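Forwarding these from the shared drive since the link keeps breaking.
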Amino acid sequence: MNSTERRALAGLASLYVFRMLGLFMVLPVLSLYGADYQGSTPALLGLALGAYGLSQALLQIPLGVLSDRWGRKPVIFVGLLVFAFGSVVAALTDSVYGLIAGRILQGAGAIAAATMALAADLTRDENRGKAMAVIGASIGVAFVLAVVLGPLVAGFGGLSAIFWLTALLALLGILLVWRLVPNPPVAERRGPQRGDFSRLLAQGDVWRLVCGVFFLHLLLTMMFVPLPLLLVDQLHLPSDQHWKLYGPLMLGAFIFMVPLMRMAEKRHKVPAAMRLALLGLIFGGVALMPQVHGAWVIVCLGVFFLAFNLLEALLPAQLTRVAPAECRGAATGLYATLQFLGAFAGGSLGGVVYGSGGAGTVATLALGVLVLWSLAWWQMRGTRVPLASV
């Protein structure tokens, strides 16, 4: 990579870390601290957990297309301001309905598609895979930091402290993009044409990848409805000490993920690595089963986090290879839409199911989702454009 590409990648990867912390930091603590909000129930807390994903899902494609026409940076700046405003709303409320409203406003700052497309604009074809892998890995880094920082920050000042920190990070993100990230070539902004969309939507591998990120975030958000409570009840780990478990698990998962990703790239085995990671996600559901106790819960969570981080890095890199360059913003918009729609569905379903049947029922549902994902992956294997090899 040249100096411009490295500069752009450093800025955008850092922006992703800042941005995704706002989504991930509440995951390990909301079901614990949200019980103190007026009117809270398991179903409403699950909705609050996933509400961010609903507005994200609704706005990713429109804002991705808008970034193709008006430019990436204006869309990113406005999205970060909206995200910061939603964070302030969530920080000031003491009602579960205010919490849900704040989370919806946070999600309305839907810049994931524009950010991913900007990264593609600023890198050459031969380096684009590396760039997308770094950005995908940065989401994994954000997840690692979030599950450690979330319990620590909440232990200091509750959920409000998390939302105030999230607002500050959003404002820092604006400064970061303005000062560090170069402007993309004007030629990249002509906007998608009708034929471009047709080619995009005709590719089975595009649908494999976007459906994959839907199921991935559905499982993650669903798991984190009962998981913090299980750590308190089964492992007798106080809520403000959860970072001591998440930290080593996530660090270990990330350390093992990097060589696995590089090996898959060098040996042109990315699709096989994805299938292996899909199998690893099974352990997330197993960890929630009532029959699993003690150290086995920790082992299962470690395997799940490793599989999650691997898929989070590989999926977006593959998408930018199979999508037509002329509508890359729309493609990443579709990807981000399904990503956050999965978060909404996972939080909402997890809250309802946990409230009615407990953690064991959530585990059963999670395993059923994995079966459905596997069937969808297999059915979409026939495509006019083969899955790109790294």
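-- next protein --
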Amino acid sequence: MSEPRLKLAVQSKGRLSDGGMELLSKAGVRFAYGRDQLHRRADNMPLDLMLVRDDDIPSFVVGGACDYGIVGENVLYEMQARSRRYADLEVALPLGFAKCTLKLAAPKAGSIRSIADLAGRSVATSYPGLTRRYLDDRGISAEIVEMRGSVEVAPRMGIADAICDLVSSGATLEANGLAAFETVLESEAVLVRRSSSRIPEIEAVAGTLIERMEGVIASAQTKYILLNAPKDRLKEIKDLIPGSDAPTIAQIADRDDVVAVHAVCRERVFWETLEKLRAAGARAILVLPIEKMMA
């Protein structure tokens, strides 16, 4: 009997594809590249990739064609807002990349300044499900105008009074004379699965993969810091090290007044932090990346 293989759906190209493949690579998964552009087989663990459109991934997972999928929260929650068919999908792990924000925006020169001003108006969006639910939850009655692209031109073209669209830098809004006034959703890539009808043998493989992914994500946000500290200022220096619960203190050869401090920092280490450490008497300060991490 063949070994059960975990089937994972990933976007075929784009930010989610790049981020997902990088995450899998850092998690130690190696794929045998063949001629099939829709399927890739891992050669060091029972895992198969299905490379599909981002919008199709929830359907692949909820329908059982794939066990797990990497998808944007914006796509997942839009599908769930549109149809109860996707209610069985759940987030197994936030992945920390492909972050974006779904915002309501309106012309700067117009009269819409808050969500209350949308009452009786129209909103153009590629996310009608999320937009409708957000407005309904706040008791706002507005017409939803569904668009597939170029949503930001809708107010200028007289198609709608406002928009609800993904925003990154805000440059596109600025170029079209729009200003955001409400955040509907903060989104990132997530690993999704069905909340029911899961196969124990497949879940064992998924558990290993998720544990590795968690290690990669944790290490990306964590640094290893090494420094020498005078003993009489050790407490002050330890308090300055960000996100470190219990640094390792080691004696330095032929020095009674200085110790070596090694710490795993679970917060970002800024230049300002290093300057404060140096002002407190720390010397030979090194900040190093952590490649892998497991609790």
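The chain has three domains: 6-97+189-219, 100-187, 222-289. The two ends are 34 Å apart (CA to CA).

- D.
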